[in-house]
Amino acid sequence: MTCVIPAHAGIRRRATTPGSRFRGNGGAACCDLEMKINDAVWGAFFLLLGVAILVHVQSFPAMSGQKIGPALFPGTIAAGLCVCALLLIARGLSVRRLGGDGAGWLAGDAWLRSPRHILAFLLVIGVNVFYILVVDRLGFIPTGVIYLGVLFAVFGVRLRNNLALALIVTLGIHYSFYKLLKVPLPWGLLQRWAW
Amino acid sequence: MSHAWAQAFALVFDPYNIFVMVLASLFGLFVGAVPGLTATMATALLVPVTFFMAPIPSIAAIVTATAMAIFAGDIPGCLMRMPGTPASAAYTDEAYAMTRKGLADTALGAGLVFSALGGLFGTAVLMLSAPALAEFALKFSSFEYFWLVLLGLTCAVFITSDRPLKGFVSLLLGLLVACVGLGNPAAFPRFTFGNTELLGGIGMIPMMIGMFAISEIIRFTVDTNPQLVIVDKPIGNVFKGMWQLTKKYPVQILRGNAVGTLIGALPGAGADIAAWITYAISKRFSKEPEKFGTGHVEGIVESGSANNSALAGAWIPALVFGIPGDSITAIVIGVLYMKNMNPGPTLFTNNPQNIYAVYLLFIIANLIMIPFGWWCIKVSKQILKVPRTVLMPVIMLFCVVGSFAINNTPFDVTVMLVAGVAAFFLEANGFPVAPAILGVVLGGMLEENLVTSMIKSDGRLLAFFERPIAATLGVMTLAVWFLPLLLRRLRQLAGIGNTA
User: Fold this and answer.
1) In this complex, do B84 and A74 lie within 8 Å of one another by their Cβ atoms?
2) How far apart are alpha carbons B119 and B369 in whole angstroms?
3) How far does A32 lie from chain B, in Å, by closest CA?
4) Which domain holds residue A18?
5) Residue B410 is nearest to which of A37, A85, A135, comparing CB atoms?
6) Claim to verify: residue A6 and residue A74 sit in the same structural domain
7) ipTM over 0.90
8) Domains in chain A: how many in total?
9) Same domain, yes or no: A120 and A179
10) Tens digits of per-residue pLDDT, B111-126?
11) What is the model's pTM?
12) CB contact at 8 A, B279 and A22
């Protein structure tokens, strides 16, 4: 996929819109946010998903006195998904046969060649998993400080400001949601000092 | 009717509501002006907060913030060659070229004035067409609704993607997500795998926050482009010369507004696609197409007004049929259901004051855009200096807490994360996200109307074509599906004929 607009966050998706047909004049940087997996791989994945759903919906009961049941709708969609998946496989394989752009199973992008960016990606996901796992036990405030501290470090905020900033922001969010909007954020370890 | 209008005025000019609109304006301008934060993201972030408000202030917050954000997206495009929201991407190069020629004030002024004008035009169309459509829609039965939803979904696939196959996959995934839980005509727990959290289905709001906010943050994380530099040139009076532009380009303004509203009203396509298409139209029909790309204001006048008119246009199908016109209204529909303002024709007959209030909100939002936008341009250099390295983590924690706040369950945070990562990978591989969103929002409605119709007709498929409107909609849907294939086949046949 070619990309002639300055590649960035908000506008990356443009490459898949009709806009791409209308784009005339070029931009500055080129796209490097892609991680192109060959369509055939996606197709195989969706085919598995579709077949699994088709098998699973067989166990759904029928509605009493009706010809149709809860299996009809998901079953139809899964069948459609299987058809699309087969088309994707065919397209992916033909791209591979032709060679050239996108012929590999996985097309490299700038961020996949940069260990720093891969680490950042994993940490951004990891810190959310960490939050989900420990927030009830640790409480919102300690978890939030660690969460922000790690993310600030990932994005390169200077260390000296890091923890102070993390604490201030966490307390700010805690105040607005816990006090103003009455969201029961967990206290965890700090239960004894709850305010 | 006049009584309902009086009520609407009272709802909108309530001091609390005005206060909400002012705050939402500032929020929207900021989100729009910071590259990487989009208007849809602004809406998703607002939902947890509006959750605790009355219906009209919560709609006011969304309407104001999105209108401001779409305008403010022009600012970094002009000063940094980086669109603040995808809706400004179409003419970012043009605006930046104008800045380098020393015409930043004209580019920003045109963005501001014609955005407001576009918003007002879209609102006028909304006010005129929605009640008429609602009256028409009162006659609809499950057959018409089934085809209408299917037509909307089809539209979303074809218009948001130049590769319909991937759009279809995306749509089917969205429909499958909508199948999870007890919310089906048989009330049978589907795909819950014994998890009680899944019985109620997958939370729409956490999922939207994931797809529109978390995925953007991930994209920021893996962005290897160097930091951008702000063009530091003084900005003069942005309103200078706007009247001359209006007199010079009346056709362009009208065409941009009309096409923008129409694209907004088409399911799935919003302000960003409206801007791309109107920019292309503007260039195609211009008397001076060679000037496009060199810092020529004509395209900005047309597409800058189109993206704001699309915002209002998207509300037409959302309010009348519950079919979102863009990703913002997809979230809005969720909010309307939460506030017991279920979209549909009865919204216009039972509670007209709420609908009138929505009209008023749109008008006010687009009027106050002029002074607020002027001020935002003044302080834009300060806004653009806010470090995104600090902003992104804060937004991410806000997303986590916001997702949790909807149902007070950590499970929703998981939904948010999974949706965000999935949206990131799908988009990176050319699968458009908009059809998936529409699939999730409309899946329940599609199935309900399908099953009701099937039961009514005792499984006879022909019954889907027996009522005149249903038949028309049905034929239209099938035409969109099969016409491209048929045409290609005919072209192939003709090609073979020629060479033979």
Assistant:
1) no
2) 10
3) 7
4) 1-34
5) A135
6) no
7) no
8) 3
9) yes
10) 999 999 999 999 999 9
11) 0.85
12) yes
